[in-house]
Amino acid sequence: MIETDLAFAPVTELAQLVRERKVSPVELVRMYLERIDRWDDRLHAYVTVSREAAMQQAKEAEAAVTRGDRLGPLHGMPLAVKDQFLTEGIRTTNGTRTLAAFVPDEDATAVTRLRGAGAILLGKLNMPEGGLLGTRDWPYGQPRNPWNTDHDAGASSTGGGIATAAALCAAALGEDTGGSIRNPASYCGVVGIRPTWGRVSRHGIMPIVWSMDTAGPMTRTVADGALILRTIAGHDPKDLFTARLPVPDYVAALDGGVRGLRIGVIREFFESGFLDRETGDAVRAAAAVFGSLGARVEDVSLPMVLLGGAIFCAIADSATALQHRRVLLTEPEQLDAGPRRRMLAASLLPVALYYKVEQARNLMRDQVRAALGRFDLLLCPSAPAPAARVDRAQVATWTAEDVIRFWQRGSHTSPFSLAAVTALSLPCGYTASGLPIGMQLVGRPFGEATVLRAAHTYEVNTDAHTRRPPLS
Amino acid sequence: MAKPLTTEQVGTLAQAAGLRVSTDDLPEVTVRVNAFLVGLAPLDELPLDSVQPIPALPLPDEA
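Output (structure tokens, whole complex):
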């Protein structure tokens, strides 16, 4: 296998090659470090590369293979983690300048579980300041989309989308509050899974919104996502809000097809007036593929979904303002203008309006869950359009139109965060200019196995996931 | 619908809340506050009277 093919190979394949001693963890880590050296000055996927520690772990992993030790499912896999997760001995900035020198003394639970399964940590991945989209001057470098570096890469698990798409790691761990895994997955042409809130521990994740934050995989195939989710999911005594439900074997559940599944295509997104034509066509074509594979596909109406962006931002901006209150009050200039202005505005909202927003969230949850009572899955675009140009987000002062456009984008993912269900983004096509298009499959609470099965069925019957970014 | 808030009014609100809003930030903060007030106005049309403001439902094994 030539080295580029090896770099882009799925984790499931790489792990098998390691177990069969056809490739060593040291070779894999060296290969990804060389790719980071070659591409990351331009892409800015990483905040910190833990070069020496990764090589040391790779040597230990190789020794374990040589000894014939029992190997974990991710043994020797070089993964990278969003800089929102605490990592013992590796600085964790949360995308902010104020934490530039913060080195935690423990791992987040999800990171502990990845390490326990044999993963090697290559480094920490770039994200907007405090996880809030709209950052203008990125403290750790302006991230760029590997499919076209004039375009942005989505947010807030930005580095996860870039590093996975450009094969600067085997796979990544992201965090999704209102769409932070699904949006960059969509823009970068990879698979991103938002598990049900409560499926994966939040312990050691720098908080954005306590009732919506969740960790999830960003991968090049659905099977890789299933493997990583199986590793990180499950109850954690350190997080009271993790479910005690047993974790299904998501990998074993991938096969079985979609025959008989009822899939509802959410009508409002196609009638919004702001859906990009190529995106709409690609998602409709994907719906037709599901139909051809035996699913029963029909339109469904969720009248509140287009309010999702504004409702979500009222909650998230208020919560983040509280998380960063000390800095906001004492040295606001330490924060980038975009997140700072979001937090300041949210701090001025009437409390009665916030109460109403929480009521609306509950109504949204009822609508989404009622639809999921009639359908096994919901289907919609992951974003209204492919990745915008980087310079579009860098204007000095946003207008009302900029804010509304931003909320429109958020309305494609945040309703399912507000509803506390599971959702997955996967590539379903490309624009004429070569940018990826993502579709979103939404499942019932703790219905990840069904979502993954449908996504896997689509993936193995189509070829959108086989393209690689034109890095040169 | 009420008139949009002016930068002066938003600056006064911020001062009352103990927040320092720079002159550079004030125009966009004003835009954002007004966008929230307009963007969330449709919530008034929703049947919210009997809806409880619950951020998270009990997890299934705890219900």
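The two ends of chain A are 20 Å apart (CA to CA).
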